[in-house]
Input
Amino acid sequence: MLYGYQTTSIGRDPIVDLVTRWVHEANDAITAGKWIVDIIPWLEYLPGWLPGMGFKAIARQYRRIYMLAANIPFDFAKTQKAEGSSKPSYTSSLLESDQTPYEIDQVKYSAATLFAGGSDTSVAVLGHFYLAVMLYPEVQKKAQEEIDRVIGSDRLPEFQDRPNLPYVEALLTETLRWRPIISLGVPHMSDQEDEFQGYRIPKGSIILQSIAWFGRDPESYPEPERFDPERFLGPNKQTDPRTFIFGFGRRICPGRHVADANLFLVIAKSLASFDVRKAVDSDGKDIEPVLGSVPGLVSHPQPFKCSIKPRSEKYRELIANVDIEHPPEKGDAHLIPDLKL
Output
């Protein structure tokens, strides 16, 4: 979508690995309060050889990976467009011959931001989804009954089915609320003096948004720990968490609509295709998951084991047909010369 670059479906893809590394480092870099220079800004001007200045070497390494992740796929799209062999993509559609260097940079860095933002956050949401339907089998069953009633078992759900699957829609919405994936949001800074409910906010203050609390506020969501899609059905719907989980103001997630659509598709197809249950140990007893999130900007669930099996032979066939209709491809990595990290 972003570069017209086909990833490999045979083994690991070097561009995906590069962006994954960048995302990991970006999450580390943006974690509020981790770096002493965020608290004492004038440390920026001290030489790197002084004790305590190790953050400078880390920043240089992080920047090197960031520039590779921004430049390599962008240069691929630019070269393909110049050769007349580019596929339709965000980058190729925005590149024009008479653009200024500033405008070209805007295309490059906005594409990189969209790539990084969508590669980690959606994975985290899906992790929480699988955890939720494993812990609440009655919710999973109700969603599957809706899919069977509306769609049947001869095909998998598609995006055009979304208006006819209100319970699946509510299940996605509850997943977004139940475990907001960016608990404290991205740090903002006040650009002018302000006041809120009697509290003075000086200019230059770092502002964090307690998004996890917004989704757990019992005044807005009674029994907030319970996973209950019914919150978002009927005449007394509770507040849609999409109003806060994607951030605020100019820094709101630019890919939120794409992410929301893709999450619906993956969740609907997963519910249609699979039964998700707790894994069992050698004695046949359920393995209980450890609830909680992995520390970091993006809140992934703690690793857990589960059992995922096709719901029937019919669905096993539908899943297998995906590989037939879309056979494995080697991808476009071979078109990028000297691809090294």
Q: What stands out?
A: Residues 21 and 318 are 34 Å apart (CA to CA). Residues 124-310 form a domain with the Cytochrome p450 fold (CATH 1.10.630.10).
